[in-house]
Amino acid sequence: MKLPHKQKQGRELLKCIRKQIQQKKYATVSFSLSKKELTSVAEHFLEFLRLPTELKEQFYFLIDPKHRGSNVGYVRKQKEYGGDDKELFHYNEWAEDAFKELLTSGTPPVTNFFDSARNVYKAAKATIKRVIQAFEIEFPGMYKKFFPDKGYPHLYLRFLKYNVIERGTVLARGHYDISGCTLTITESGPGLRMGTDNSDLKPVECKEGDVLFTTGLNFKKITSAEFPLTWHDVIKTGRNYSKDVARWSIVFFADPIGMEAPTLAQTHTLKKP
């Protein structure tokens, strides 16, 4: 019996992802936005970051106080507090509701950034839906874990700026993602490395028309052990992007709803094979 066209496409996509994840610890998936379009969005993000701190800090909302990864909006992290020196912004449907009043201010950097973020979020959501639908073929019920019938899904489009560092080369320490799965959408340049552990980390880059799919700590719990975790870090290579920006990237996280968030220690501790 012939499989319906969409189901056949889904099986082929899952087969491709499985093979790549097992071989390289990441898989490439096609994406609808060009590098040029995404770079323009990143510039709007950097323009937003030049706004006064007191205004940026108004853009903060926590979806679930018990889930440390459920923050929406602007966050500044610094090395002295145990993190990497960076600024980030999480955009999703929750952000539109939480920051509705702030969005009516008409501040151009805010308006431009949110308009751009909506477009990338729409494309990323469509891509991860296609991926999860492919997994649904072999893991029934998985789709509703990410896309429930009621309420917003727990998806986070992360815009990330690494601040210029004076010493060393490590911009982001080795870690696993807290999410169920991740799409690395684009970045200003090389520096991202992926592997099994620190001994086999290899440089990876987002190519035109593709994004990188990787698994987070909760992914095995809803699929199987045949989809290994991706250990990754970010190092400084070459010149800084600008005088105050070492590097920027755009990443998309998808969390299954109702699962406990891994701790900071769990995300930064290598697991035994």
Distance between the termini: 39 Å
Which H/E pattern describes the elements?
A: HEHHEEEHHHHEEEEEEHEEH
Largest sheet: 8 strands, antiparallel
Q: What percent of the residues sit in helical stretches (DSSP H or I)?
A: 25-40%
Radius of gyration: 18 Å
Give the oligomeric state. Answer: single chain
Q: Report the β-strand fraction as a percent range.
A: 25-35%
Which structural class do the helices and strands define?
Answer: alpha+beta
Overall pLDDT confidence: 91
The count of DSSP E runs of length 2 or more, i.e. the number of strands, is 12
Please provide a brief summary of the model.
The protein has 273 residues and is of the alpha+beta class. It has 9 helices and 12 strands.
Report what the structure shows.
With 273 residues, the protein is an alpha+beta fold. It contains nine helices and twelve strands. The strands form two sheets. The protein has an eight-stranded antiparallel beta sheet. α1 (5-24) packs across α6 and α2 packs across α6 (108-136). The protein is globular. The protein starts with a helix and ends in a 6-residue tail after the last helix.
Output the keywords:
33% helix, 12 strands, 273 residues, 26% strand, alpha+beta, eight-stranded antiparallel β-sheet, four-stranded antiparallel β-sheet, globular
Topology of helices and strands:
Layout: H1 5-24, E1 27-30, H2 35-49, H3 53-56, E2 60-62, E3 71-77, E4 86-91, H4 93-98, H5 100-103, H6 108-136, H7 142-146, E5 154-163, E6 170-175, E7 181-187, E8 192-195, E9 202-203, E10 210-215, H8 219-222, E11 231-235, E12 245-255, H9 264-267
Antiparallel strand pairs: 1-10, 2-3, 3-4, 4-5, 5-12, 6-11, 7-10, 7-12, 8-9, 8-11
